[in-house]
């Protein structure tokens, strides 16, 4: 069976609302620095009122990744749940305008479309306060077999793992992909996700995942060790490709019986780290779908991450295809 897309992703459909603040704002408003905190609708409304002049964009981790793939010139589809409200319509319009195919039907509100209120401090750290709303109400019924199998790679977002119905949807999607001999990738998303769902993640990785994305802290937490080499050894024992991002130290990739260290691309000034891991995955998966070498996949990931951390917002502002061509990474 041929493929329609380089990647099909399943994730939380969220509107990102980004606001530049100082550390005093975090203290005054009880925002945990550098963390992702789940909040209810009342807290979301409270913080929204304090985010005057914020930058808003259709977001969500896997959504950012497939938007990045489209920016490379790749093809991508997306499965995620929004409400039939204004935020849901805004998400759908922006997402489709970016070149991503999004066909999941909305559900009646309430709850409303999800939003992530992201406070960005001068050091580039992002502190996320996330109201999940309708995004968590994705079920196995939303996982279309033909759509899943139309991608060369299925990409699953760890943030979606908070409800049993979403976990069941993940498993069904992975089984659909495997039945068509497609690769399945997972991002662990956040160390707090790993701490909540460690056993489920380890079961998922061992049984269904071909490509695992994690930052250093997430992988250490998953395997309950402080030794990165030991964590990578544990991961590669159950997963063929493991890509670990390490901020300014680039990434370390275990694949094909080898370990590859890939340098980070230089950035003049880190403005906002929101979306760095998402865009790394975009470059890596775009390269993998186009049958590039593992080091090339890592380099494309590093390039995409460098672009997104140089400005506010979780999605590229400059064509990643053009940047990759300029860097000699595009064929």
Question: Topology of this protein?
Answer:
Elements: E1 5-10, E2 14-20, H1 23-28, E3 36-38, H2 41-50, E4 55-59, H3 61-71, E5 76-79, H4 86-97, E6 101-102, E7 114-120, E8 126-131, H5 145-149, E9 151-157, H6 164-179, E10 183-187, H7 191-208, E11 211-215, H8 216-222, H9 228-236, E12 241-245, E13 251-255, E14 258-262, H10 276-289, H11 294-308, H12 320-326
Parallel strand pairs: 1-5, 1-9, 2-7, 3-8, 5-6, 9-10, 10-11, 11-12
Antiparallel strand pairs: 2-4, 7-8, 12-13, 13-14
Helix pairs in contact: 3-10, 7-8, 8-9, 10-11
- Structurally, the number of domains stands at 1
Indicate the structural class. Answer: alpha/beta
Tell me the span between the first and last alpha carbons: 25 Å
Q: What would you call the shape?
A: globular
Q: What value does the average pLDDT take?
A: 92
* Fraction of helical residues: 25-40%
How many strands? 14
Give me the Rg, rounded.
Answer: 18 Å
Largest sheet: 9 strands, mixed
Secondary-structure element order, N to C:
EEHEHEHEHEEEHEHEHEHHEEEHHH
Protein architecture, described:
With 331 residues, the protein is an alpha/beta fold. It has helices at residues 23-28, 41-50, 61-71, 86-97, 145-149, 164-179, 191-208, 216-222, 228-236, 276-289, 294-308, 320-326, and strands at 5-10, 14-20, 36-38, 55-59, 76-79, 101-102, 114-120, 126-131, 151-157, 183-187, 211-215, 241-245, 251-255, 258-262. The strands form 2 sheets. Strands 6-5-1-9-10-11-12-13-14 form a 9-stranded mixed β-sheet, with helices on both faces. Helix 4 (86-97) links the parallel strand 5 (76-79) and strand 6.
């Amino acid at each position: 069976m041929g493929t329609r897309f380089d990647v099909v992703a399943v994730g939380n459909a969220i509107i990102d609302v980004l606001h530049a603040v100082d550390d005093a704002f975090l203290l005054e408003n009880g925002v945990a620095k550098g963390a992702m905190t789940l909040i209810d609708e009342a807290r979301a409304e409270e913080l929204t009122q304090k985010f005057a002049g914020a930058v808003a964009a259709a977001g969500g981790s896997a959504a950012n990744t497939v938007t990045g793939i489209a920016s490379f010139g790749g093809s991508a589809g997306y499965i995620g749940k929004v409400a039939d409200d204004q935020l849901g319509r805004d998400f759908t319009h922006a997402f489709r305008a970016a070149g991503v195919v999004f066909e999941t039907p909305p559900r009646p509100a309430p709850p409303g479309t999800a939003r992530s209120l992201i406070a960005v401090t001068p050091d580039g750290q992002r502190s996320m306060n996330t109201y999940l709303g309708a995004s968590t109400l994705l079920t196995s019924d939303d996982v279309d077999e033909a759509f899943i199998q139309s991608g060369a790679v299925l990409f699953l977002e760890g943030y979606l793992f908070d409800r049993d119905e979403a976990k069941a949807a993940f498993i069904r999607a992975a089984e659909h992909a495997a039945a068509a001999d497609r690769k399945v990738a997972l991002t662990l998303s956040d160390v707090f996700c790993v701490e909540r769902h460690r056993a489920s993640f380890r079961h998922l990785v061992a049984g269904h995942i071909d490509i695992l994305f994690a930052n250093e802290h997430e992988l250490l937490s998953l395997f309950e060790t402080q030794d990165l080499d030991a964590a990578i050894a544990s991961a590669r024992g159950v997963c063929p490709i493991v890509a670990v991002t390490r901020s300014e130290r680039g990434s370390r990739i275990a694949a094909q019986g080898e370990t590859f260290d890939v340098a980070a691309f230089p950035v003049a000034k880190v403005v906002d780290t929101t979306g760095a891991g998402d865009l790394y995955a975009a470059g890596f998966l775009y390269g993998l779908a186009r049958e590039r070498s593992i080091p090339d996949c890592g380099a494309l990931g590093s390039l995409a991450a460098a672009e997104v951390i140089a400005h506010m917002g979780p999605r590229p502002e400059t064509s990643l295809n053009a940047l990759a061509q300029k860097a000699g990474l595009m064929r």
